[in-house]
Amino acid sequence: MKCAVIPINRSDFTFESSFSSIVRTYELFKPEKILILYADFNDVHLQKLKDLLDELKGKGIDIKCVKLTMESFEDFKKLIEEETKGCEKTYLVPTSGANIVAVYLTLLHSQIHPLVNYLFSFGSWIRYYYPFVPRSLENVLILGDKKPNTVNLDLNLDSYLDDTVFTRIIEMGAEKLNKKLSIENDDLYLKLKGKEILSTDHPNYNKTLKELSIIFDHAQNILTLSGAYDIIVDDKKIEDISYGRTLIIDTNLIYYGIHSHEIRDIVIPYCVHNEVLFNVNKKESFSDALFYVYDSLREKSRMIPSESTICDVAIPKIEPDLIRGSLVVTADKWAYERWKKLAISSYTDLKLAHLGKERKDYVNVSNVIFNLAAILCLMKTSEIEVCWKSNGCVKIDCKDGVKID
Fold it and tell me: Rounded distance, CA 337 to CA 334, Å?
């Protein structure tokens, strides 16, 4: 009997890392028993995992959840030995565990058990988790055992799909693609009306723009919204300059694809909401797609009150105590120059942003591919496909509700 031990008590991204680790372990090794280790403060995450654990039980897997109370390595070792009696092979998965638990599992590995670590690619895929990201972004490192030759994802996890339309399209597409892939890694590409317009192995955004321009007037805006470019502030990427800080954004950062950058504390003034809604009222397909992108970002961000007018006027009038010490970024040079002369410049860090280089690494291009597919879908475009290079495609259609085939 094969078993797996998976702790769910790390300090950040606890649910996401736990979910990914459990699903990846299942599809790789098909263990007959999974031992979940959790602490008192992880009860909430255990409850969120209930549907997943029930699905695994439906596959005949014995799921055992044990609250951690041990104080020493010997206590921990005794617990694992007791719970894995009868297991011919026990996979130890420290990825979603706290540091001390990860150390203990590593010590156990040095004695007899295989150690399995999953390497998550956050960046532009921040807050997504497996199987709702391409498998190629969730690499596995196995010590003490061979990597399986084939992978099989056969779980129904629809209850975990996001409520926001834009994110849901991406999650559904990624999950369907993962079910088609029987290996660990492959390149991705995007097809529009039968033509390949972007791929991870040879990304060419000029080609993408050319193909988009044949159909759309807003080709550059569509590609920018998809997150194809760095956002630069003071000659640094916005992810770097905002690290560990609260970032207040102007509406133009939505158009720049800020949703696809790894920023953990984005705050959106209500004036941004009003400006996005105003554009939706123009009844243009791009504005509709922009709203859904914004809506997905709003669900993962904080909102602060502002006057119900344009942000050029409203942001400098936000209650100072709500934004004191924050990084406030706009791509509007006129607004930036005006704000520097106002009181807001004395209690916030005002910055001007501009677009930088194309983002061409595998992680970012894969994200652009899925973002573009979802944006084009929301613009009611037909014949959109996201494909593995050698393992099939999924069709993405939003004409009569979201359909992923």
Answer: 5
Which helix (DSSP H) or strand (DSSP E) does residue 239 occupy?
A: helix 238-241
Q: List, in order, residues 6 or more apart from 45 with CB less than 8 Å away.
A: 8, 14, 15, 18, 38
- Domain formed by 229-358, architecture: 3-Layer(aba) Sandwich (3.40)
Angle of the 362-378 helix axis to the 285-299 helix axis, nearest 10:
120
Helix or strand or coil: residue 327?
strand
Q: How far apart are CA 217 and CA 209, in angstroms?
A: 11
C-alpha to C-alpha distances, 159 to 11, 228, 329, nearest whole angstrom: 25, 30, 36
- Give the ranges where 2-117 is alpha helix by DSSP (H): 14-29, 43-48, 50-58, 73-83, 99-109
Statement: the pTM of the whole predicted model exceeds 0.90: yes
Contact status, residue 201 vs residue 389, Cβ threshold 8 Å: yes
* Sequential DSSP letters for 184-236: S---EEEEETTEEEEESSS--HHHHHHHHHHH-TTHHHHHHHTT-EEEEETTE
DSSP β-bridge partners for residue 229: 358
State how far Cα 342 lies from the chain centre.
Answer: 37
Q: 371: number of CA atoms within 13 Å, CB side? A: 30
Asked whether 61 and 34 are in contact (CB, 8 A), the reply is: yes
DSSP-derived pairing of the beta strands 89-92 and 188-192: unpaired
Q: What residue has token string 């961000």?
A: 301
Chain segment 155-172, per-residue pLDDT in tens:
999 999 999 999 999 999
Pairing state of beta strands 229-233 and 349-358? antiparallel
CB atoms within 10 A of CB 208: 25
Reported as a single tens digit per residue, the pLDDT across 259-304 is 999 999 999 999 999 999 988 777 688 999 999 999 999 999 999 9
- Please name the amino acid found at residue 138: E
CB 148 within 8 A of CB 27: no
Fold match between domain 2-120 and domain 229-358: yes
The domain 2-120 is classified under which CATH number: 3.40.190.10, 3.40.50.920, 3.40.50.10770, 2.40.280.10? Answer: 3.40.50.10770
Tell me the Cα Rg of the chain: 23
Q: What is the DSSP letter of 92?
A: E
The Cα diameter of the chain in Å comes to: 72
Q: Where are the domains of the chain?
A: 2-120, 229-358
